[in-house]
Amino acid sequence: MKLPKSFTTVTPFTKMLALLMLVIFPICGFFLGRYYQQTIDVSKPPHVIVQYKMIPPTYSPTPPQSSDAVKTCKTNSDCQSGYFCIRSGPIMYNPKTKELPPMTCHKKGTVVAF
């Protein structure tokens, strides 16, 4: 189908119209997009900022079963109920005597420093 010459001719008016459309449509699209985003943001719950704070752990050796006497043990069954048998403190092997430090009873749920 052949179009009339008046529809296919480039005139100064069509040049200006094309230039205006090239500038105005993207600007209008930008502002309409901002408005649409604002309407979406209103319906969403506000953002919650979570901050994590690193707190260095505080380890302190637990005292043995009784503060005045240290109960040595070999297994957990040697300790009374609520206590466990563990080697605490710096564990140093003595090659001359071939002995390790003794194991002692400590309360369950406490941190034992090594």
Could you explain how this protein is built, in words?
The protein is 32% helix and 10% strand. By secondary structure, it is of the alpha+beta class.
Radius of gyration: 41 Å
Q: Quickly give the structural class.
A: alpha+beta
DSSP helix fraction: 25-40%
Cα distance spanning the termini: 93 Å
Tally of helical segments = 2
Shape: rod-shaped
The total strand number stands at 3
Average residue pLDDT: 81
Beta fraction of the residues?
A: 5-15%
SSE succession: HHEEE
Q: Describe the main β-sheet briefly.
A: 3 strands, antiparallel
For the biggest β-sheet, the strand order reads: 1-3-2
Unreliable parts: 64-68
Short description, anyone?
With 114 residues, the chain is α+β, with helices and mostly antiparallel strands. The protein contains two helices and three strands. The chain has a three-stranded antiparallel beta sheet with strand order 1-3-2, with no helix packed on it.
